[in-house]
Amino acid sequence: MLVKIPVVLATLIIHSKEVERINILTKLILHTIALEVNTNRIPYVTNLPERLVLENIEELERRGVIIGDYNGNYSLTDVGRKNFNLLNETEIINERKIEVLVDSYTKHIFRKEEILERYVSDEEKEKIKEVVKIEGNRYIKQFLNNLDPSNSKEIVSKILKNIEKEDMENISVEVKMVKEKGGYIVGKVKDNIVKKNQKSKLGSDIVIKREVFKNTYVPKFKSLKKIDKKVIDALVTLEKNGFEYISDSGLEILQKYQMAKENLVYYYDPKDNKLSVDKFKSEVKEREIKTALHISNENKNIDINEIEEIQELKARYGNDIEFEVKVEKEYVYEKFAIEDVIDIYDKEVEVNG
């Protein structure tokens, strides 16, 4: 089974208080020095007053950001290199307008390159005809109004290659919506769903709706069909009144009659190959479920000949007993971490910036 999850198309914007405090002229000076260009050229190419440029350079020297001489030959100090890396990489990323896809169900953010690594191939889509659409979160737009939503900061930390850890802590990430209806990402439901995680790493659970079988077996005795109903009624009346002299054959008729009135009910879970006389309970109440993924059973119902009690009755009564069988499908609801169910959430994919 394939699952289509609606996504929002967005871009990443990095905000840094350190960078936002740097004025335009200082940014220009840092870029000039990083490119190993003489700073004396700045007034000529910008028409800025030479005195203003020199004042900014002197301020950077006092703060230990640059070092050099008054002939315009400067280089970045370790502090300067750190500041420049933050400035430069932030500017580059914001200019690139890196597009991301926000999964509107889990709120997880995917790089487009990452989706290509995780995506179900066209060939596989052709093989799997059953496709289910999952409804997205209606409040996803409001969610993205907050800074650092979901795993946005984790994505940015992988893109920013030369940024100090302490600077990363002072960075905020804005995920700016470009298109609310950005299409779908397609995942595949795992063939063998096993509860590996008690709590989802993505903070998202999904409810699985699974079929179980309710099997009702009604015993029928061929020998009872040959006995007049009046005889059976008379035997029942005698037994009720405590008559003690009913013959063995009469007692046998009564026993079969009572047995034929009692249905044998068994519940069978094909996933776990579990047979029970008790109804299977759901982990989640049906009225509390917003979205449930219906998993159809490929496994068949239990064979009547595999039930021990049925076999004992057949062994006891031979060809005289047969069973009328009624099979009903029921459903149980189980909650799983989404990465235990849909494959695209369960892959560690490294994506280069």
What structural keywords apply?
353 residues, 6-stranded mixed sheet, 13 strands
Question: How are the SSEs ordered, and which strands pair?
Answer:
Blueprint: E1 2-16, H1 17-20, H2 24-34, H3 42-46, H4 50-62, E2 66-68, E3 74-76, H5 78-96, E4 99-103, E5 109-111, H6 112-118, H7 122-127, E6 131-133, H8 140-143, H9 152-159, H10 165-169, E7 171-179, E8 184-188, E9 205-221, H11 222-225, H12 229-240, H13 248-261, E10 264-269, E11 274-276, E12 292-295, H14 308-317, E13 321-337
Parallel strand pairs: 1-6, 9-12
Antiparallel strand pairs: 1-4, 1-7, 1-8, 2-3, 4-5, 9-10, 9-13, 10-11
Helix pairs in contact: 2-5
What can you tell me about this protein's structure?
The protein is of the alpha+beta class and 353 residues long. The chain is 35% helix and 26% strand. The protein contains 14 helices and 13 strands. It has helices spanning 17-20, 24-34, 42-46, 50-62, 78-96, 112-118, 122-127, 140-143, 152-159, 165-169, 222-225, 229-240, 248-261, 308-317, and strands at 2-16, 66-68, 74-76, 99-103, 109-111, 131-133, 171-179, 184-188, 205-221, 264-269, 274-276, 292-295, 321-337. Strands 1, 4, 5, 6, 7 and 8 form a six-stranded mixed sheet that branches. Strands 9, 10, 11, 12 and 13 form a five-stranded mixed sheet that branches. Strands 2-3 form a two-stranded antiparallel sheet. A hairpin with a 5-residue loop joins strand 2 (66-68) and strand 3. Helix 2 crosses helix 5. The model is unreliable at 349-353 (pLDDT under 50).
